[in-house]
Each structure stands twice: as structure tokens, then as C-alpha cells.
Amino acid sequence: MNIHEYQAKELLAKFDIAIPAGFAALSVEEAVAGAEKLPGPLYVVKAQIHAGGRGKGKFKELGADAKGGVRLAKSIDDVRADATEMLGNTLVTIQTGDAGKQVNRLYVTDGVDIANEYYLSMLVDRATGRIAMIISTEGGMDIETVAHDTPHLITTITIDPATGFTDADGKKAAAALNLSGDLAAECEKLTANLYKAFTSLDCEMLEINPLVESADGKLLVLDTKMSFDGNALFRHPELLPLRDETEEDPAEVEASKYDLAYIKLDGDIGCMVNGAGLAMATMDIIKLNGAFPANFLDVGGGATKEKVTAAFKLILSDPAVKGILVNIFGGIMRCDIIADGIVAAAKDVNLSVPLVVRLEGTNVEQGKEILANSGLPIVSANDLGDAAKKIVAEVKQAA
Ligand code: ADP
Ligand code: MG
């Protein structure tokens, strides 16, 4: 789960991490009211979307010369003008794709006199199975470019889970940024607190770009992106209200309501499968037969009628789908119960495309009988190869 910059900053502040003062705003009036509470004379108005590269982004509705999604404002009137121009318009950045994202929220924050911009991020490194802190003196810009052109300017600190973040790790971080004296001490404290935030919130990724040294010698978090491990969210009821569904893919939001693992793909054969491994195998065998899957969809172990119906609706909401292949192994769940669910769901959604079903496992014969007696044009298949051949043929015939 991703959250907005202002939400991430509010969370970091609780871990004694220095952030400039700021206020979130849903309207021009709120943006102005927020600015009035700040000392000035420099304000920054920032678009809140779940994508980076806002500063260099362009608004679709505004001319090519218009300012981007992070704007320095020198007066309250400028804040008002910028907020008016940004709210409701569509910001396109290197991370949003061509469609861009509509700006519905702003963050109005203190303008900082910047002496230096640094980069710092943390993530779970799958190769070492540990949390890695990635640090660079080259902040404010695209870190992929830094990694490609000047990899020696990036330092990675791998943190041992047995000791947690140590003083030595903090010293390495300060050294990577060439800091000394008070700033080095500040950096050591900051990185230790970031590690605490990362682990206690079960983050998946935390990126600070830029981390800045201000002209008056302080280290401040100017921009941050934070995402959480979805599998750990049950431990954090306090984080759930931070979710902004308007930033997510609508089909994937719908899927998550029913606890379905759904990812949209480019093909035309919708798949409904239980178990991620079987789902992968099903996608492979569709390809082997010369067609392409329209989605990955794992309905999970306990596929109830409600889940199966929701899954059918989800698959059919994709206009590219020309046929559906259901491939379910009835282990804990019996095949007759699954068949009942499929028949009820197919009736419920007025199924309009060919449907091939392959069931295997407990009570498979009863399950097949239910499908055959349903009065629906369901094609039954005997094994995975047979199922794939049948759905590909059905779709070709219908085309
Ligand atoms: P993005 O990464 O989405 O472009 P940032 O928040 O990193 O957005 O802003 C882009 C640039 O704008 C920063 O690298 C920094 O130079 C400047 N900036 C951002 N916030 C402030 C601020 N509060 N004060 C001064 N400059 C800022
Ligand atoms: Mg940034």
C-alpha cells in the first residue's frame, strides 16, 4: 500500500525525524489557510499524487511553459494562484504514464533554503534477505540515472537484523554523505530513527529524495515516498485510513475487497484459478496454445460463491476478455461446492463469453455433473492441456 507524501511526513515526524512544517489541502481556500499558518516568505505548493517526478511534471490542461507539480510561491497570493491552477488538473510525470494523474490534494509547506540535496532510501533486499539503506550525495535527481552513470556515488548499507541499526551503520551513512561534526551526528540520529520507522511500520520501501542540508545547517526530509507490506497491514489498523483508493487501479481495488489476487494483463482469455502456482501454470499453457491470458487471478484456497461471483465480474469488466478458463483444484474445498458457485455466478453475471471449466480433486464427478446439468453452455475439460486447447478453440471460433 502506498501513501501520500504529507501522510508519510506526518508518520516520520512521530519518530523524531525533522520535516518542514506543512498542511494538506483539498481546496484553494484550505491551501491559503495552510500557507497563512506558515512563517513565509517562501512557500512550496506540492501536488499529492502517488507518483514521483512531480517537480519536472507537466499539467495536461496547461501550456508547455506552465510550472510543474512542485511550485515555489513567494506570497500568499502566489499560493492561491498555484493552487487554483493545479487542483483538478492532470499531472503527467515520468512515473504516471501518459494518462497522468488528477491532482485532488495539495500540500503547502515551508520553503527551505537548500545548501545540499542528498538521496536516502530503504527497502527489503531480496538477495540478502535484509533491509538495505541506499545513500547518495546525488539527491534531488533521478536515482536510476545516478546508478547507471555514476554507480560509485551510491553506498549501500546492509543492516543485520540481529543487531538492528548500529552506531557503526550510522557512521557509515554520515561518511557516505561526506558529513562531519554536528551534521554527521544529526545524520546518525536521523538514520537510526528512519530504521526504527521502517521496521515498526512494516514498510516495504521508504525513499527520501531529497534529504537536504539547509543553509542554516540542518538535515531535513523534503520529499518522501513510503509504502507498506500488504501482508503486514493486519498489524497496523492505524495505517488503513491512509489508503487513497482514488490513486489505485479500480479493478485491483475491487479485487482487494474480496481478497482476490488480481493483476490485469494484455491478452483476451480471462483466467480464474486457485493458488498462485496453478495460476502461473494456467497462464503458461494458454500461451503454449497460441493465445494470451487477460489476467492473473488467484481466488485463494477458500473460494466461496461470493468470491467466485466477484471474480467473474472482475474478469468480465475487462472489455478485452473473449473467453474464460476456470481451473480449480478442489482440495480443502470440494469440487461440487465449487461447481455450485460457478453455476450460480455464471447465471448472476449473465455470462456472455465462452466458459471452459476444469475441475480436479475431491468429488470431481459430482462437480462435473452439476456443470453438465446447469443448462449453461459450460464446456467441461479433463485436464490442464485439454482445458487450454478448448478455450483457445472456443475463442477462435467466436472471433
Ligand atoms: P518530486 O520528486 O516528485 O519531483 P520533490 O518534493 O522532490 O518532488 O520536489 C522537487 C524539488 O523541489 C526538490 O528536489 C527540491 O529541490 C524542491 N523542493 C521540494 N520541496 C521543497 C521545499 N519545501 N523547499 C524548497 N525546495 C523544495
Ligand atoms: Mg523527490
TrEMBL record:
Residues 272-392 form the ATP-citrate synthase/succinyl-CoA ligase C-terminal domain. One of its GO terms (cellular component) is succinate-CoA ligase complex. Binds 1 Mg(2+) ion per subunit. PROSITE patterns: SUCCINYL_COA_LIG_3. Pathway: Carbohydrate metabolism; tricarboxylic acid cycle; succinate from succinyl-CoA (ligase route): step 1/1; One-carbon metabolism; formaldehyde assimilation via serine pathway. Mg(2+) binds at residues 209, 223. ATP binds at residues 46, 53-55, 112, 117. Coiled coil: none annotated. InterPro entries: ATP-grasp_succ-CoA_synth-type, ATP_grasp_subdomain_1, Succ-CoA_synthase_bsu_CS, SUCC_ACL_C, Succ_CoA_ligase-like_bsu, Succinyl-CoA_synth-like. Its cofactor is Mg(2+). The keyword Metal-binding applies. Residues 2-213 form the ATP-grasp fold succinyl-CoA synthetase-type domain. Its EC number is 6.2.1.5. One of its GO terms (molecular function) is magnesium ion binding. Keywords: ATP-binding, Ligase, Magnesium, Metal-binding, Nucleotide-binding, Tricarboxylic acid cycle. Heterotetramer of two alpha and two beta subunits. Belongs to the succinate/malate CoA ligase beta subunit family. Succinyl-CoA synthetase functions in the citric acid cycle (TCA), coupling the hydrolysis of succinyl-CoA to the synthesis of either ATP or GTP and thus represents the only step of substrate-level phosphorylation in the TCA. The beta subunit provides nucleotide specificity of the enzyme and binds the substrate succinate, while the binding sites for coenzyme A and phosphate are found in the alpha subunit. This is Succinate--CoA ligase [ADP-forming] subunit beta. The gene is sucC.
